[in-house]
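Field guide to reading this record: the first block holds the primary sequence, the second block holds the structure written as discrete tokens, and the final block holds curator observations. Each block starts with its own label. This record concerns Beta-ketoacyl-ACP synthase III, catalogued under organism Lacinutrix iliipiscaria.

BLOCK 1 — SEQUENCE
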Amino acid sequence: MKEVYINRISKYLPNHPISNDEMEGKLGIINGRASKGRRIVLRNNQIKTRYYAIDDHGNITHNNAQLTKEAIVGLCDDDFKAEDIELLSCGTSSPDQILPSHAAMVHGFLKNGNIEINSPSGACCSGMNALKYGYLAVKAGQTKNAVCTGSERTSSWMMADTFEEELQYLQTLEDNPILAFNKDFLRWMLSDGAGAFLLESEPKGHLPLKIEWMEGYSYAHEVEACMYAGGDKLEDGFLKPWSEYPSDQWSKKSLFAMKQDVKLLGENILVKGVDSLKMALDKNNLKPEDIDYYLPHISSYYFKESLYKEMIAQGVEIPWENWFMNLSKVGNVGAGSIYIMLEELVHSGKLKKGDKILLSVPESARFAYAYALLTVC
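BLOCK 2 — STRUCTURE
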């Protein structure tokens, strides 16, 4: 088996940072009235700025595959060209279409010759699953290198016109229709962007990062769907897919919008997260005090204090001073968040040889968690 190193890291954040006061102007006002939930959600998540692939005139500037392609281009120079890529592994929660796959569309924009591609599906963990596929391929000697990415372009899913027909339909049923909170909630949480890693079997460049191990855990056998798109959840918890609804119901129910069961999120995301963290640390004989930098992808600062308390309760406390986050500046980029977070840490000048970095990524879709331990070389 080969060793595997992250030798290059790149990110791409479209256009310019969008402040909280600019958000509704970008995404649009639903049914002619400002969102009642916006200020509550923003106060809790404490996100100050985020990025949208939307220009100042409301035009879409990039799709998801184009954002990802730009992040990959950031990895390349005269010493490593796009044509040198042997494996392309791309994770996202928000592909531009059902088919072809996200990685196929990214490859189409790169136009860099015949290569292997991989497109893991899912939510935030899809970016880590993309990384694990590349990690295992390089480790096994199947490829000399792999480019792995995580990205999202959710802004277009959150535009006001996505929900207009549903609100018009509700108008026929009631006098004062409002968008359900499980849909409105995510409008003020998500951001656009992409990150990319170059994996190789030899360390190169300034402070390469060795991937020591990766672990993943799913709790879908215990908990029903919490965040979902392309379907609707029935009262008994069953997730009915869009393909089983008449086509005239697709827009009336906003079936393709992302939705979040906030109650289910609060009940499970932290408990299951720390439970899986304990399993990952125990399996790999790693103690919390061995971790120099803990990079948790969390959707909201609302969860930060509670996550820390849950760690203490379960005996895996990682001190505050070892946490590194950038949620307030870049927003929740889903599958791309951990890539963008690590890119900022690497370029911060804080790292030194021997530092241990723990990547921690949850997804609330049906509660799954992914972890990776890195060592600075």
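BLOCK 3 — OBSERVATIONS
Residues 262-283 form the longest helix (22 residues).
The chain has a mean pLDDT of 93.
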